[in-house]
Every structure is written in structure tokens, then in C-alpha cells.
């Protein structure tokens, strides 16, 4: 799958940085998301919400940096800037936002609130569906309305795979072995390649961001120490497939390792508000870096 065009990269970077603003000190959204809660993903926000913005050449002032951005904007066709970005998020319950106490769509809702806080520059379509596995997503991508959404997207975000692992757990609950997961991982890889191939056929130039999954399973199966390794292996497979299709893999496994902070909803499986905040911040970080 082709990487985003130079114009789209530059435009999205400009939108995100200018949306932050030189006076802004924190990630804005409704109090349901941010009241008295740390951001969790400091790489993006500490760099971009302070008075300086770091790059490979040093730490120029925000004023100089925004002057450079303003000059860059002039080089972009105005017609392109006037068009809203169409961002399609598809996949499982992590995209749907299950567990979000504000009921605003999890990480997708957070990105929507953030990017559109000053002016409406991006339209988000949330096609996440609870319980979706890779096989379900393959079937859904045959539906006319899903096809139309993918064809019209300027960017696609995907969460998929956690339910595939959960299905293996359910089917082998009485005799869970690493080998069972290793075998199923090969089938998962094949299905994930089918998904990426379909995206490539429907919209060859769209940038795709495949969001990795974390390990919530230890909440249920603390005695199975191999689960961390299994989740890591499956994420590595996802990253490999993403690379093969020139998509971007965004890891999230490390975001949920903080045992001192509650990052899970009452079901002990999905993220809570803070968990989704960490995911959204990580995704924004990758959007800027890409």
C-alpha cells in the first residue's frame, strides 16, 4: 500500500501543529476526558505544547517554526486545503470506543475533538464494531457502504486482532499452549493480508495506520505467563504485514503496562478514558512523525 502523498503528509502535519497553538498547554477536550488525568503519552504533547518544538536540527522557537509552516502552506494548492480530510476508522471494539465513560467514541472521538477544536478540518467516520475478528472485517469490507467509505477516505485507521486471540482462548480454554497460538497466528496473518490487499484495491493511495493491541488477557489469566509473549508475537506479525503493504504500524502494548494506574474499563478488557487518551496521543504522535 502506498504511503501518503507529499501534499497529504505536509498538510496533516501543518493542521496538527497549527491546531495545537503557541499558547496551548494541554490536550483540550471535554472534562469527561481530561479532568485531573495525566496525558500518558508525553512524546507528542510535551514537544508540541511548549514554547519550542524539537526537530533533528535543534529547537527553533515556535514563532520561527510557524513562519516556516506558513510559507509551506502557500506552496500547497488552496483547493486541497479547502477540502476536509475524510478519516475512516474501522475494526473492532477498540475503534468503536467500548469502555469510554464519556460515550464519545474512544480514541476516535478524542482525535475528532482535538483536530476539530478550532475549525472543522477533518470528518471522522467510525466503523468499529464490537467483537470483530479479522474474518468478520473481511466480510464487512464487501458491504457497499463500507466500500464507499474506504474509497472516499484520505486516511484509514484500523484496530483488529485482539478478538482473534480471544477466540483462541475460548476454544482452547482447558488446554492452552503456546503452539496453539503460534499455529493460529499464521491464519491471522493470512487474513490480515487479505484485509490490506482489499484496502489497496479499493483505495491504492490511502495512508493506512494499523494500530496494535495490548494484553488485557492477564486480567483474566494471570497464571498464563506466555500471554505477554503471544501478544507480542501477534503484534510483530501485524507490524510485518503493515510494512509489506507500506502501511504504518502503531504499537500500543507498552501503553498499558503501568500497573499503578487503572487503564481499563469495568469489564477489565477495554480501555477506560485514560486508556483511550494514551492511545489517541500515541496515534497523533505517529501521524506527525510519518
The main sheet orders its strands as 2-1-3-4-5
Q: Which regions are unreliable across 5 or more consecutive residues at pLDDT < 50?
A: 17-80
- Major beta-sheet overview: 5 strands, parallel
Mean pLDDT over all positions: 76
Given the helix and strand composition, which structural class is it? alpha/beta
- Rg calc: 19 Å
Total number of strands: 5
* Series of secondary-structure elements, N-terminal to C-terminal: HHHHHEHHEHHEHHEHEH
**Looking at the structure, what is the overall shape?**
globular
- The CATH superfamily label reads SGNH hydrolase
CATH architecture: 3-Layer(aba) Sandwich
Q: Give the number of helices.
A: 13
- Domain count, please report it: 1
**CATH class label:** Alpha Beta
Separation of termini?
14 Å
What does this structure look like?
With 290 residues, this protein is of the alpha/beta class. The chain has one domain (6-289): Rossmann fold. The chain is 50% helix and 9% strand. The protein has 13 helices and five strands. It has helices spanning 6-20, 31-34, 42-48, 62-74, 78-82, 93-96, 106-115, 134-140, 144-151, 162-171, 178-202, 226-244, 273-289; strands at 85-91, 122-128, 155-159, 208-211, 248-250. The protein has a five-stranded parallel beta sheet, sandwiched between helices. Helix 1 packs across helix 13. The protein is globular, with a radius of gyration of 19 Å.
Amino acid at each position: 500500500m502506498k504511503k501518503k502523498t507529499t501534499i497529504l503528509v505536509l498538510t496533516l502535519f501543518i493542521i496538527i501543529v497549527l491546531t495545537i497553538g503557541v499558547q496551548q498547554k494541554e490536550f483540550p477536550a471535554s472534562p469527561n476526558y481530561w479532568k485531573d488525568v495525566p496525558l500518558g503519552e508525553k512524546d507528542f504533547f510535551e514537544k508540541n505544547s511548549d514554547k519550542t518544538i524539537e526537530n533533528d536540527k535543534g529547537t527553533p522557537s515556535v514563532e520561527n517554526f510557524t513562519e516556516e509552516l506558513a510559507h509551506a502552506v502557500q506552496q500547497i494548492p488552496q483547493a486541497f486545503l479547502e477540502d476536509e480530510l475524510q478519516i475512516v476508522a474501522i475494526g473492532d471494539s477498540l475503534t468503536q470506543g467500548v469502555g469510554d465513560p464519556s460515550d464519545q467514541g474512544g480514541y476516535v472521538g478524542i482525535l475528532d475533538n482535538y483536530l476539530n477544536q478550532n475549525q472543522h478540518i477533518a470528518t471522522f467516520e467510525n466503523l468499529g464494531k464490537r467483537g470483530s475478528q479479522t474474518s468478520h472485517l473481511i466480510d464487512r469490507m464487501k458491504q457497499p457502504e463500507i466500500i464507499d467509505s474506504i474509497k472516499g477516505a484520505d486516511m484509514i485507521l484500523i484496530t483488529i486482532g485482539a478478538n482473534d486471540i480471544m477466540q483462541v482462548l475460548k476454544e482452547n480454554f482447558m488446554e492452552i499452549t503456546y503452539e496453539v497460538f503460534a499455529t493460529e497466528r499464521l491464519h491471522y496473518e493470512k487474513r490480515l493480508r487479505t484485509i490490506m490487499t482489499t484496502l489497496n484495491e479499493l483505495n491504492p493511495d490511502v495512508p493506512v495506520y494499523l494500530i496494535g493491541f495490548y494484553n488485557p488477557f492477564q486480567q483474566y489469566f494471570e497464571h498464563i505467563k506466555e500471554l505477554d509473549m503471544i501478544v507480542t508475537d501477534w503484534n510483530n506479525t501485524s507490524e510485518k504485514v503493515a510494512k509489506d503493504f507500506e502501511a504504518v504500524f502503531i504499537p500500543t502494548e507498552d501503553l498499558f503496562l503501568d500497573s499503578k494506574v487503572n487503564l481499563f474499563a469495568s469489564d477489565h478488557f477495554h480501555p477506560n478514558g485514560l486508556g483511550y487518551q494514551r492511545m489517541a496521543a500515541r496515534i497523533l504522535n505517529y501521524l506527525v512523525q510519518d
